[in-house]
Amino acid sequence: MKTTLATLLALPAIALATSAYASTLPQTCATKQQEIKQQLEYAHQHNNKEQIAGLQKALTESQEHCTESGLQADKQQKIAEKQEKVNERTRELKKAQATGDKDKIAKQQKKLDESLHELNEVSTR
């Protein structure tokens, strides 16, 4: 039981270490705009006028207002939010483990795993 708890407490640290390595290739304004252009091309191919209008607005906004520091700040905020969710899920798992209810433990473990996955996704973008 103590080994499992120690492993669970180490998971967020491992996720952050992995994400720190993966985040060496940050999204830039140019890559963000290229992604929007690709989506815009796809929307044109499928003649989706509403999507085209929205993507054109997004591209214009990105070209006018995107900064590398702003992207980095947004990313750090999202990472902090996801890390807090991981911390919350870890606390919930500890409570479930204290009750000894295997169903609750499994449910909370699944939620923690999902939160860790979300954190990793945000960190590696």
Mean pLDDT metric: 85
The number of distinct β-strands equals 0
Class from secondary-structure proportions = mainly alpha
Order of helices and strands: HHHHH
Question: What percentage of amino acids are in beta strands?
Answer: under 5%
Shape: elongated
Structural write-up:
The protein is mainly alpha-helical and 125 residues long. It is 88% helix and 0% strand. It contains five helices and no strands. α4 packs antiparallel against α5. The two termini are 35 Å apart. The relative contact order is 0.16.
Which helices and strands, and how do they pair?
Elements: H1 2-22, H2 29-45, H3 49-65, H4 68-99, H5 102-124
Helix pairs in contact: 1-4, 1-5, 2-3, 4-5
Short description, anyone?
The chain has helices at 2-22, 29-45, 49-65, 68-99, 102-124. The protein has 125 residues and is mostly helical.
Describe this protein with a few key phrases:
125 residues; mainly alpha; 5 helices; 0% strand
